[in-house]
Structure formats: structure tokens, C-alpha cells
Give the backbone structure.
Amino acid sequence: MQTRNKIYFASDFHLGAYPLEKSVEREKVIVQWLDAIKHDANELYLVGDIFDFWFEYATVVPKGYIRFLGKLAELADLGIKLTFFKGNHDMWMFGYLKKELNARIIDNELILNLDGKSFYIHHGDGLGPGDEKYKFLKKIFRSSLCQWLFARLHPNLGIGIATRWSKHSRVSSNAPENFLGEDNEWLIQYSKEVLKAQHYDYMIYGHRHVPYDILVNNSTQIVNLGEWINHRTYAVWDGDKLSLQQWS
């Protein structure tokens, strides 16, 4: 039996995004990937926007994702530690995944020490300069009042609204995004500001749908995990190095 000594990072599956048939195809591919990594994975970090929409009512969760959730349950039963980050599409995670999968739920950033190396991990939404409108909306959407009010809606209405909204998101176009250059990528600029106060060996993000792996300050590796609509990229820590890879 292989030793489970690797740590995997992935984000932005956007399961449930319009068109639904594309989401189902993507889910099957993701399940194939999860089935492949279960033999050597010690931990799996899902760094936000795993679902295009997620809201946990007291007794109801969104329909679908049965293959994906079933495979995660298998991984959890094998002893693989699961960590979910709240993204801007699935920020309304509460206790369901923790109860069913023993998963850890992260609201914002997570700072880790792995094999003597420091890691800073965040979905990436609301960081860096600009996008003040979203930063304002994020505070509202994450407020307990907003969540309480949404929970008062019947699931058919609440999830129906979210499904219609999904048709107008950037994911529905399936168009790949382009790398803007180190000086114009706002997560890289944010990272450089953070590094002025605190050194990290690795900084890992999702949210920005462009996979990249760059070295800044000759010492910090910044990885954006990309997405699984066009790129199917993920990162692996093997105890010595962090590599950005693509699933084919």
C-alpha cells in the first residue's frame, strides 16, 4: 500500500453552475481525480467556490453533487483530512459538511506550518486593492442577519433565485481568463504587501480563474490554483516542494 504523505489543494470547481450538463460532466472528472489521489493523500484542502451556490437550511441542503459528496465521504472514511474554505459562491457553509465528513471549515485565511515551511492560504475574494462594491456586499452576505433572513425563504425560492443568478456569472460563459502580469495581478500585489510584515514560504489562493506559479522576493512561492472549467489544475505538497499540476 502506498504511503499517504501528500497534501492536495484545489479550488473553483463551481459545481452546479449553469449550464447544468457541463457541471455534471465536470463533477465526474473531479471524482476521477479524487479517486486517483486517495491512494497517497494525507490531506485535501478545497480552497473555496467548490459549489457555485451553497446554503444549509436547518434540514435541507442543495440537491445534486451526489457523486462528489460520496467520493469525499469515502476519502474521509479512509482517514484523509478534509478542509473546506468558504468562497464567494459557497460562503454559507455551516455544520453539515463538518458533521457528515468531519471536515474543517475555514472562514478566511489559514496559516499552516507543514514540514517546517509556512503556508498562507485564502480563497482570495475581497483581498487586495479595488473591488469595493464586492467587499461591501461580502460583509452583508456573511452577516448573521442576512443568513437568518435568507433561511426564512422556502428552499424552492431561495435556491431558485441562486440558480437564476448563476446563469449570469462569469462561470456560465466557460471563457478562460488571462494572466495580467505580475504587476497587475491583484492577489500577487496583495501578497507582496503581506510579505512586508510577515514572511511565508508559500501563499496559495483560489478565486482568480488563472493558474499561476511564481516566485517573489526570491523566497516566496505564490500559487493560484486556477479552476476546473477550463484548466483542471491543482497543487501538491510532497513534503519538500509545492507543484502546480494539471489533471488530464
Q: What stands out?
A: The chain has a mean pLDDT of 88.
